[in-house]
Each structure stands twice: as structure tokens, then as C-alpha cells.
Design a protein that fits this description.
Layout (H helix, E strand, L loop, with lengths): L1 H14 L2 E4 L2 E4 L11 E2 L34 H4 L4 H4 L35 E2 L14
Antiparallel strand pairs: 1-2, 3-4
The chain binds heme C (HEC) (2 copies).
One heme C binds next to helix 2.
């Protein structure tokens, strides 16, 4: 019985190639179409935050800024060592804590991949309309 169910699921997963979502129907193995030219939204000031503890949006473009095991381009401006010289905002102290709340001398590894939380903004037609309203409004 159990084996049958597993087999059924596996074969139906192979059959289903279209996924219907709010964006429309998509063939699963089709890549998304990237816009030809991205107009990044650049600001000298911060983006407004929409809720407490929101990771701030990035007010500059991030193309070509590599983050891998050997280098992290973001740190060349935002680290404690470089932020003054680069006239960039410094990462807040939360970036130095481990999960069990130990303060490390260096940035915590769990914050290394900045783009997991911080994202740049571009002028694009939204794929789906949003009716998000800030709690304060
Ligand atoms: C060449 C220096 C430089 C590099 C490299 C850089 N930044 Fe920035 N960043 C800045 C400056 C300067 C600002 C302040 C706003 C401005 O002038 O654009 C800023 C602003 C920000 C902010 C907004 C902070 C706030 O309080 O609102 C975030 C988040 C951020 N950067 C993340 C990143 C991430 C993630 C990367 C790597 C993908 C990165 N930055 C790479 C210079 C840099
Ligand atoms: C796990 C999510 C997460 C990751 C990964 C992360 N951040 Fe943040 N970051 C946040 C949050 C949340 C805030 C806002 C609250 C705070 O300061 O802790 C923030 C705030 C900031 C600020 C603004 C500080 C201020 O005082 O206003 C900067 C600059 C920044 N991060 C840079 C970075 C850089 C550079 C990296 C990568 C080296 C990074 N962050 C990785 C979540 C993250």
C-alpha cells in the first residue's frame, strides 16, 4: 500500500510539467526570462523600512560583487576595518553574534552571505501586484 502511494506520487510528479501560480502557468524546467537591462534604484539615503528588524534594502547596485569562500566584496566597504575609509554604513553588532548569542570578534559566519537577507532594488514591472500595507498606515 505504502509502496503504491510512493510510486503514484513519483509518476505523477514526472507527468506534471506545468505549474500554475499567481504569475501564470509555467513549465517547470523553463528558466525565468531575465530583463535585458536592469535599472537599479540608487539612493544616497536609506530605503524606508517596512517592519521592525527588516534587513535594510541595498541602495546601490550589486552586480559583479562576488561573495564566495575566498572573498566577500561587501566586506570591502561594510566591515569594521573598512567602513570609515569607504564612508559606508557599518554592519550592526547583531552581525557578530552566534545563534547561542555569543559575541564573536569577527562577523558571525551565519551573516556571511549578505544577499540572503539584503537585496538591491530595480525598476521593473511587478510580476504580481502587491497590496502590502505597512502596519503603521
Ligand atoms: C564600494 C563600497 C561598497 C560596496 C562594495 C558595497 N556597499 Fe553597501 N553601501 C555602500 C554605501 C556608501 C552605502 C550608503 C548608501 C549609498 O551611498 O549608496 C551602502 C549602503 C548599504 C546598505 C543600506 C544600509 C542601511 O542602513 O540602509 C546595505 C544593506 C548594503 N549597503 C549592503 C551591501 C551588500 C550586501 C553588499 C555586497 C553585495 C554591499 N553593500 C557592497 C557602499 C558599498
Ligand atoms: C540573516 C540575515 C542577515 C545577513 C546574512 C546579513 N544581514 Fe545585515 N542586517 C540584517 C538585519 C535584520 C539588519 C537590521 C537590524 C540589525 O541591525 O540587526 C541588518 C542591518 C545591516 C546594516 C545596517 C546597519 C545599521 O546600523 O543600520 C548593514 C550596513 C548591513 N546589515 C550589512 C550587511 C552585510 C555587508 C552583510 C554580509 C557581510 C550582511 N549585512 C548580512 C540581516 C542580515
Amino acid at each position: 500500500m505504502v509502496v503504491d502511494t510512493v510510486t503514484d506520487v513519483a509518476s505523477s510528479a514526472a507527468d506534471v510539467v506545468d505549474v500554475a501560480s499567481l504569475r501564470g502557468t509555467h513549465v517547470l524546467d523553463d528558466l525565468s526570462i531575465a530583463p535585458d537591462k536592469i535599472k537599479w534604484i540608487k539612493k544616497n539615503v536609506e530605503f524606508e523600512r517596512n517592519y521592525d528588524d527588516q534587513p535594510p534594502l541595498i541602495p546601490h547596485k550589486t552586480d559583479g560583487m562576488t561573495i564566495n569562500l575566498k572573498k566577500n566584496k561587501c566586506l570591502s566597504c561594510h566591515s569594521d576595518e573598512n567602513y570609515k575609509e569607504e564612508d559606508s554604513p557599518k554592519m550592526s553588532s547583531t552581525h557578530f553574534f552566534t545563534r547561542d548569542e555569543t559575541r564573536l570578534p569577527e562577523m558571525s559566519p551565519r551573516r556571511y552571505f549578505c544577499l540572503q537577507c539584503h537585496v538591491p532594488q530595480a525598476k521593473l514591472d511587478p510580476l504580481v501586484d502587491s497590496n502590502f500595507v505597512n502596519l503603521d498606515e
